[in-house]
Amino acid sequence: MITVTAARKHYGSFLALDDVDIDIPSGSLTALLGPSGSGKSTLLRAIAGLEGLDGGTVTIDGRDVTAEPPQRRGIGFVFQHYAAFKHMTVRDNVAFGLTIRKRPKAEIAKKVDDLLEIVGLDGFQHRYPAQLSGGQRQRMALARALAVDPQVLLLDEPFGALDAKVRTDLRQWLRRLHDEVHVTTVLVTHDQEEALDVADRIAVLNHGRIEQVGDPVTLYERPANDFVMGFLGSVASLGGQLVRPHDIVLERDHAAALALDAKVADSPGVITATVERVVPLGFEVRVDLRADSGERFAAQITRRDAAELGLREGETIHARATSRSTVVDHDPALAI
Ligand SMILES: Nc1ncnc2c1ncn2[C@@H]1O[C@H](COP(=O)(O)OP(=O)(O)OP(=O)(O)O)[C@@H](O)[C@H]1O
Fold this sequence. Notes:
single chain; 336 residues; Rossmann fold; CATH 2.40.50.100; 6-stranded mixed beta sheet; 29% helix; elongated; disordered C terminus; binds adenosine-5'-triphosphate
């Protein structure tokens, strides 16, 4: 378990970490998610020991490492732009941490072979970093970080510089790798889809503070506040209330909309709106709407529902958030 308690960090007069408390369970893959400048990297670097804190403590498995340098914290680190040793082969790059620790040659050879297989780079041991793709280089970086059996693996936007398809492949690969090696992993990302896809816990940061920590489903379905709700998925403002676009049901008939089972607290009720656009998104359809009040919002419905409704631009429709709606929980007692 990594425990960060009351972490504070200033850069000049700017407060980058504002009394951050977080527990990261052993064996978890925890994502630090937040917008640019929210303090994710600063928190990760503080756990790594690459950034000193103005106040607060970091413990790893019960050991207070606040005053320890990075090399004594038992961590492996991978950055967005991994600094490989260009003049060394893949094999020697991965072996680096073991070589400087003067491990026996046979042990190093076995370990490197095992790791290259785990990261899917067996057969690449004699290549140089320049002869690898960006995704392969990041996998080599992970193998190198794992070589010294770290207690904790810290990843700062490791796939940030790669194109969308490679990113998606690599994050699924990371999830499988984590299931195999179980090392406590902390991943910094600003991409909510990436966090939802790979992490078993997500901490949402904003302005140097943690807004909420929880598993992806809890954060998506029971966000503690508007910020978390808006950051983890699309939102629509319906009668002044934030709801998920796919939790909005559309009816041609006002009475049918009123009859919908909508046990949502502070339900905005039935909103009468004009269809502005119908946008096919594949399996679903996004319906852009303008309420009589002038408020614009979007509903997301299946193609089948859209076909049944036979929606046309300019028509009037009745919208309601149903009982399945994710409505922000304003009760601070329930906020995690
Ligand atoms: N060495 C530094 N000196 C001054 N300000 C810094 C320094 N490092 C970070 N900051 C500032 O602290 C804030 C938090 O930075 P941090 O890198 O932790 O954010 P982040 O959430 O990781 O953002 P990003 O996704 O853009 O990397 C930012 O406003 C940044 O400009």
